[in-house]
Amino acid sequence: MTQQAIDEITLTGVNNRLLSLNHGLMGKALFFYKYARLQSATHYGEYAENLVHEIFENVSMNMSIGFMDGLAGIGWCIQYLLSKQLEEGEDNDILVDLDNAIMEHDPMRIKDLSFENGLVGIVAYVRARLDGKDSCLPFDKIYIRRIEEACVQSGLDFYSEDYDLDNVYKKIIRYYELLPGKERQPWEQELILLEHEPAEIIYERKEFTAEQEEYESRVVKSENPCALIFTQTSRAANYGVGTYVDVLAQCLIPAGWNVCVFELDCPKEDEGFCILKDAGYYKLSQQGISGKQREHNYAQFVIQHFYVKSGHIVCHFNFAMYPLMAERLRTTLCAKAVFTLHFTSWSFDLSGDKERLLTILKKQNNDREKHVYKTFMDEKEFMLNNCDCVIAIAQHSFDMIRDVYGIPEGKLSLIPNGRTFTKITRDRQQGLALRRKYGFKEQELIMVFCGRLDSIKGIVYLMDAFRVLSCKEKKLRMVVIGEGNFKSCLKFADGLWNKITFTGFMEKDRIMDFYEMADFGVVPSIHEEFGYVALEMMMAGLPIIANNTTGLAELTENGKYGLLYNHERALEGDGFLSTCEKVLTGQLTIPKADTNVLEEKYSIETFSRNILNLYNNL
Question: What is the mean pLDDT of residues 292-299?
Answer without folding.
Answer: 92
